Amino acid sequence: MALVDAVLAANEKAVIVKLSTYGPMMESEALKGTFYHQHAHVEAHLDASKCCDWVSVRP
Amino acid sequence: MLGVAGAVKSAKVLPSGFGDVSVGFIDTRDVGAVIAAVVAASPSERADLVGRAVNLSGPDQLTPAQTAASISTALDTKITAVEASDDDMRRGLAAAYGEGDVADAIVLATKLVREGAISGEVSTDPALLGMATFPRLRSLGDFALAHASAFKEADAAFMEGGASTAAAEGSS
């Protein structure tokens, strides 16, 4: 998250492409608490910032 | 996939905890290529992607048996898929990635896919596919060939040829 904030602070026009794990794992309640769900927090943070273009790719 | 390459190489078996579920493995090189395409795209080209999380899948949805067959064909070596218990998978993954949360989470996710709690089949988002610069995705066979030394012992004939060549060079 600190890295995200640093990128945003450095360049408000930044395009961030975030690499995460694939969708069904992120959305599974059973996987809450594992690293899969940490990605969702970053996406929420990026979305709330509203200061850059971002895309989250979930392979 | 490389986490089980050792078993493929040493015992010619592909351990899997996915049961008969199909999974769309994607080559890590293609993940990088897709991300590069998104970064390099013009604002209009990526307009449909901004502010979204988009799924990216490999070109083929393969069961473990089909995965083993694909690797077999690519490496010209018979590989057989074998069902691995969660404990076996955890031990193997821990050996490859280290003990801890990653191995545990992968085992849990694999179990949930096997049991149908979450889908193993994910389609690539149409907005990604619609990009003019979306790359051609490599097959699992392409991946196996690129990592052949991890999956397969060096070919005996090649080794003999190489030894002969080295001997000839040494004698000249």
Can you give a write-up of this model?
The complex is a heterodimer of chains A (59) and B (172). With 59 residues, chain A is of the alpha+beta class. Chain A has one domain. Chain A contains three helices and two strands. Chain B is mainly alpha-helical. Chain B has a single domain, classed as 3-Layer(aba) Sandwich (Rossmann fold), CATH 3.40.50.720. Chain B has a two-stranded parallel sheet with strand order 1-3. The longest helix of chain B has 16 residues. The C terminus of chain B is likely disordered. The chains are: A alpha+beta (59), B mainly alpha (172). At the A-B interface, strand 1, helix 2, helix 3 and strand 2 of A face helix 2, strand 2 and helix 5 of B. Strand 2 of chain A pairs parallel with strand 2 of chain B, so a sheet runs across the interface.
Topology of this structure?
The complex is a heterodimer of chains A (59) and B (172).
Chain A: H1 2-10, E1 15-19, H2 23-27, H3 35-49, E2 53-58
Parallel strand pairs in A: 1-2
Chain B: H1 5-11, E1 13-16, H2 28-40, E2 52-55, H3 64-75, E3 80-83, H4 86-97, H5 101-114, H6 126-129, H7 140-146, H8 148-151, H9 156-171
Parallel strand pairs in B: 1-3
Helix pairs in contact in B: 3-7, 4-5
For the structure shown, list the relevant keywords.
heterodimer; A: 59 residues; alpha+beta; two-stranded parallel ribbon; 3 helices; 49% helix; elongated; B: 172 residues; mainly alpha; Rossmann fold; 9 helices; 3 strands; 7% strand; globular; disordered C terminus
Task: Summarize, please.
Chain A has 59 residues and is α+β, with helices and mostly antiparallel strands.
Query: What is the strand arrangement across the widest sheet of chain A?
Result: 1-2
Helix count of chain B equals 9
In this structure, how is the largest beta sheet of chain B organized? Answer: 2 strands, parallel
How confident is the prediction overall: mean pLDDT of chain B? 85
SSE class of chain B:
mainly alpha
Overall tally of structural domains of chain B = 1
- SS element count, helices of chain A: 3
Poorly predicted parts of chain A: none
Which sequence of SSEs, written as H and E, runs from N to C of chain B?
HEHEHEHHHHHH
- Tell me the Rg of chain B in angstroms: 20 Å
Fraction of residues in H or I helices of chain B: 40-55%
**Segments of chain B where pLDDT lies below 50 for 5+ residues?**
157-172
Write down how many β-strands of chain B occur, each being a DSSP E stretch of 2 or more residues: 3
Major sheet details of chain A = 2 strands, parallel
Instruction: Please report the distance between the alpha carbons of the first and last residues of chain B.
Output: 44 Å
**Given the helix and strand composition of chain A, which structural class is it?**
alpha+beta
Q: Please write the string of helix (H) and strand (E) elements of chain A.
A: HEHHE
User: Measured on Cα atoms, how large is the radius of gyration of chain A?
Assistant: 12 Å
The helical percent of chain A reads: 40-55%
Spatial strand arrangement across the major sheet of chain B? 1-3
Let me know the number of strands of chain A: 2
